[in-house]
Amino acid sequence: MAIDPDAEIDHEGPVTPYRQLAEILKARIARGDWAEGRPIASETRLVQEYGLARSTVRRAIAALAEDGVVWTVQGRGTYVGQPPVEG
Predict the structure, then answer these.
(1) Helix (H, G, I), strand (E, B) or coil at 37
(2) CA dihedral angle for residue 19, residue 43, residue 26, residue 35, rounded to 10 degrees
């Protein structure tokens, strides 16, 4: 599903808000808002920006992590791409 990176969350639509946010974040990454290996906006910032509950934002980030789009370091943030290989 192609989505406008500047889209707003449609709370009345057929797609759940967390999935909408995941797709918006994916589109923002594709647009270059956040580069490979760099952090995306914090959960707090995304909660404020999109008017969603923290649990919804976390679920969207978890969905992106499952898809291999981002990875998270507890207490440090969520980063674009795959985690670095420890060696």
Answers:
(1) coil
(2) -170
Q: Taking the chain, what is the end-to-end CA distance rounded to the nearest angstrom? A: 37
**For 13-52, what is each residue's pLDDT tens digit?**
999 999 999 999 999 999 999 999 999 999 999 999 999 9
pTM, rounded to two decimals: 0.91
Cα 30 to the center of its chain, rounded Å: 12
For residue 6, give every residue at least 6 positions away whose Cβ sits within 8 Å of its Cβ, in sequence order, or none: none
Query: Of 68, 63, 67, 21, which Cα lies nearest the Cα of 45?
Result: 21
